[in-house]
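Deliverable D4.2, example record:
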Amino acid sequence: LKGTGVTVCTLNPPYTDTKILKVDGYPEDLRFYSVSGIKKPEWIAKKALKALEKKKFLYVPGIWAKFIHLVLIKFSPRRAVDAVSRYFMQGWKKKT
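Output generated by the structure prediction step:
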């Protein structure tokens, strides 16, 4: 889009407390919640607006999310990232 006057920005928020987290089958106790937490949509919106006002093209709100997205994933072997992702994308409790 260079030269068109359009600017593309990326927002990578942590988990956001929306209806999708409450659908049947979605783990209520996702392991990653203990790392990233769950943020309110209003919190995400405020952070996103501030980032846009500062003309940030890539914005990851939250210290843990920043560390994970901008450091850990970038410098870790792909297999390690995949394994850790699979682990944290599960619930803590075993299904019976």
